[in-house]
């Protein structure tokens, strides 16, 4: 279409005006861009430069190597082994669910592990932090991941270490176990160590692993690395080595522990063996036990539920967590309270008619027919109850409890174990405070034979026995040395009790085991110089006296036995508890003799240490136990060589 | 004055035309492209592969293309404007059905070795067609409602098709370029004021409706707007690009870290470092001075376009030149605003610098039209 010249000129003028206007606007906008550039690059440069450094430099923690744990002879109880795991950085993975599925298919991840990894991946948090999706994988899995790396963005294998307990279930109740840091663990700490934020970092969960965590963990090192946006390390800028955790040596004798654990198989029982001289805990066994290795990577419910539902409670460390009525094992304390106070002499006699009338209530002796006239030795030997009822009424509960405390009962021993129970030595004030009721004389009577409110752990009973045997304030010790530095031995002080009284007590305990009429006679040791002294205990779980065989397991009496040996030169003190085992003389004492002999001979004892009548049975038992004791076999082959 | 009334004799002919090309503009474009090669070389860690080398070849090709187009008389191109526009709309429709999808949204058609991106082409053909339309339309009819509605439809049709791809960045550029051309052509300012007012009103209404029963857009869409307004609310999601880009830019300072010394882009903190975010590398390595220099080059290119247009008495030529200049301006203005955290992240490359053959070829093609208009202007 043609336009007139005037038209075109006019429209061109208008166009030029508008073009100028638009040019102006464009210039203005560019001015704005320049101003913004100035603001970012000149005005705020310092701040952004700082941010850029942070972007570029990443501080990576070097997890410390956890300290290892050994027994008193240097046998390894907890060690670190290299393990491969597969980690994923969500930021780089993109659709991490799809990538996880591919990984799961590639390395045969179990559905449970996959679910766990998915859940961890789904959590909020820094997406640039690596998340462990599979742990303790085989070398084949590692190579499968490496070969398929292009299809698995953000996924890489990593070598680390994991805890292994080479002695399996023997030490679950001593060494304990490690596990991944849980959110709950972090909350419990006021200022958690940064190393705890490493995904699946292992920390001690119970027992020595947990209680000595600060020593075992060590200090994390760090390295400053330059990373790119995908988190790949380009180069290392600086490295600061951390410090490995301390190696611990326990006082436990792994060989003995192993024997005891094997000997307790099938029972719900606890055994503590103390070295009388230093208070070293040579064995601390609670049966049944469990394999702590199962817990390390997170236990599966198919493994955990049976442990949780077992009525023998394998997860409970009965030696220090379980508080039981000490029963007749407590009688030495009642007697010591009385003779130390001078209220009676060991030679004074008391008449046992089979019961005692106190405050209108009749308290029976276990022997309904009565024991007749008894002195201290006689009463302990036959475990007469009335004798002690009588003493208790004369001495009073306060003095009995005070004496119990001097023997280490009712006191929380400072051990590197979890949930150490302090037991209970009741007093009038305690009952009023805790139960809101006045102390009645019947309570004293019950307490005198270790029943009623009186509670003690097997550990405490072993300590009590060691103190009786030595007259010194023997204090249990579990950590022998830290990084080779011997730990102090506590409790060399004398108990401050008259030696003649202690000697009398020991003599009485000797009679319990070695006198034909003693309750522990069937479990005596006949080897000279190895004689054992002890005391049986049967603590009632229910009040009515019924035959143990006719009631369900849960209602049977606890069987106890405390002992020390050799009688003339005490080296070992031992406490045995068999939960609902029936009688102390039948269920607990035989175990005590076996483990004591094992300790005395530092290995399998000769058969002639046993009374000839038992040898046949013991021989079969020893043969059977050899199969579950790796060390016994090793010794045998050494002997043959 | 229409091309038929040219005093044809004063117009250069044959190869003499080369002398009459807008040489400063060619030099400016080459300078900008050179900057691009430098940056692509740098982000590749000092290597011609994979970006700088191919980019150079494409630029050489594009330069030849530009010169060839520049030597073809402008009236030829004017006659082709309608056809070009129709072809690109048809192509836009056909990519809906036959196109390949890649890089999230942009769609293209494979034509032998050529990868055709109709939306790129449309930026130019729309300007061409509108320029031709206003060249044809008598000036006094420009502001009549019916004659305003027609170009609006011309703009809206390809814009909707592009939105559907979905490529919001290109759609906004089309809308802005089309609207800009209508403004340049002399459409009454009241139309623009009305559209602007309506737009502002709509945005205000949308925000007012937030949280009420008659809320107009979805909650997640509000969240996206929030993130744009304050990227720090989502530093690892949408805000990540902007935050990282600002860090890289800011750490450049006055003079920058020096060529090949940029840490942020080299360490991959920046997404799309060779395409949409290449400006951050430049700003980090050459600092404020480098950034301003590039901005100045861009400004000069726009200025030369405006000057050429104002000098040109041919209505089609000057509208076309202005339109292409405006397009070019929108490209770098949107990209730089985005990189500097002034605009949301939409996929718009930095013209002549970002890696990408298609965008650069189309731009050089467009500048070929500008050259043609310049050479064949009435004298």
From TrEMBL, chain A:
Source superkingdom: Bacteria
GO molecular function: penicillin binding; peptidoglycan L,D-transpeptidase activity; serine-type D-Ala-D-Ala carboxypeptidase activity
Region annotation (Disordered) ranges: 606-641
Cell compartments where the protein resides: Cell membrane; Membrane
Membrane topology of the entry: Single-pass membrane protein
Penicillin-binding protein dimerisation domain boundaries: 62-237
Alphabetized Pfam families for the sequence: PBP_dimer (PF03717), Transpeptidase (PF00905)
Name under which the protein is recorded: Penicillin-binding protein 2
Species of the source: Sulfitobacter undariae
TrEMBL record, chain B:
Its EC number(s): 2.4.99.28
Keywords: Cell inner membrane, Cell membrane, Cell shape, Cell wall biogenesis/degradation, Glycosyltransferase, Membrane, Peptidoglycan synthesis, Transferase, Transmembrane, Transmembrane helix
Gene Ontology, cellular component aspect: cell division site; plasma membrane
Associated pathway: Cell wall biogenesis; peptidoglycan biosynthesis
GO BP annotations, alphabetical order: cell division; cell wall organization; peptidoglycan biosynthetic process; regulation of cell shape
Source species, domain of life: Bacteria
Reaction(s) catalysed by this chain's protein: [GlcNAc-(1->4)-Mur2Ac(oyl-L-Ala-gamma-D-Glu-L-Lys-D-Ala-D-Ala)](n)-di-trans,octa-cis-undecaprenyl diphosphate + beta-D-GlcNAc-(1->4)-Mur2Ac(oyl-L-Ala-gamma-D-Glu-L-Lys-D-Ala-D-Ala)-di-trans,octa-cis-undecaprenyl diphosphate = [GlcNAc-(1->4)-Mur2Ac(oyl-L-Ala-gamma-D-Glu-L-Lys-D-Ala-D-Ala)](n+1)-di-trans,octa-cis-undecaprenyl diphosphate + di-trans,octa-cis-undecaprenyl diphosphate + H(+)
Subcellular location, principal: membrane
Subcellular location: Cell inner membrane; Membrane
Membrane-spanning parts: 20-47, 59-77, 83-109, 121-139, 145-163, 175-207, 286-307, 319-346, 352-370
Pfam family, one: FTSW_RODA_SPOVE
InterPro entries assigned: Cell_cycle_FtsW-rel_CS (IPR018365), FtsW/RodA (IPR001182), RodA/MrdB (IPR011923)
GO-annotated molecular function: lipid-linked peptidoglycan transporter activity; peptidoglycan glycosyltransferase activity
Keyword Acetylation: no
Purpose of the protein: Peptidoglycan polymerase that is essential for cell wall elongation.
Stated name of the protein: Peptidoglycan glycosyltransferase MrdB
Taxonomic source organism: Sulfitobacter undariae
Gene name for this UniProt entry: mrdB
